[in-house]
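Regression check, PPE case 323:
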Amino acid sequence: MEKAELIWLNGEFVPWDEAKVHVLSHGLHYGTGVFEGIRCYETERGPAIFRHADHLRRLAKSAEMYYMELPYSSEEIGAATRQLIARNGLRSCYIRPLAFRGYGEMGLYAQAAPIDVMIAVWPWGAYLGEEGKRRGIRAKVSSWRRISSASLIPQAKASGQYLNSILAKTESANAGYEEAILLDEGGSVCEGSGENVFVVRDGIISTPGHTASILDGISRKSVLQIAEDLGYQVVERDIARAELYLAEEVFLCGTAAELVPVREIDDHEIGEPGEITRHVQAKFEDALNGRAEEYLEWLDFLDAGSDETPAPAGEQSSSKVTS
Ligand code: PPE
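Current build output:
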């Protein structure tokens, strides 16, 4: 991965290589962490974070659902993120806030172990490749089912849950595919290992609903809105596996991946990216990059009002700030 200069760790800006934790950190042993994947884009009006508040809200909810009390408010984490991007001199980047149970207590009931919070930012190119975004990727339906509400919280973005995604992704990569599509426990289509999934049939755009164990994707929500605004019929419903093969078009979307067409699934050819996928993709990219007037409210511009941004509580003391 590409390094930046500073990482924000528990209220301090520390040099990238010095952002370390104890090997007995609870989260390392049990996966007790919650995180976000966010992107900042360089726009004509300067760097802007896409749907920043929505991501911070999801982070706070993920933490709460896993009984983790965050030592910083969403406002503090948001302000620290804005400063971190500026101090690293980045114009566009991926943003990874992570809150995890730290060092201090072992075992499964470890409410006394502290909650550590870190934010890292770094340049991260197209998750499934530039070529994938243009020409489409090859995906494989995973033999692993997506975690269900029976045992975990699919709606939370929690570290330990990603073992499920890693099994699926690794299996598909080892078989020569770019991405895995997981079914839910009932056998309906759920989502990609790190993206939500959409199918186009008879011109109608469908995506699995919330009972299908999906992550409530922020890109998904944006794409649904954009597609509807473009005049397409959009439906949230159960999708059968074979519909992936029968579809005229299939695409994935997520923060890291953005919007990526799928051109082949298992042994079935979907074909070159279709017209609807292209149309929605172009508008989505306009929204991300600040080129769509109607979606400017989704962008948190770093240059706008940065002077008024109060210093987050965790970093009031400038003597603690490194560099
Ligand atoms: N489902 C899963 C399982 C998922 O991890 C993501 C994001 C999505 C759907 C799409 O959600 P959203 O980003 O809010 O539109 N995956 C993140 C992590 C990728 C990684 O490898 O790490 C991301 O895209 O940042």
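Comparison notes: Residues 37, 165, 191, 194-196, 215, 217-220, 254-257 surround PPE (CB under 6 Å). Confidence is low (pLDDT under 50) at residues 306-323. No diff flagged against the previous build.
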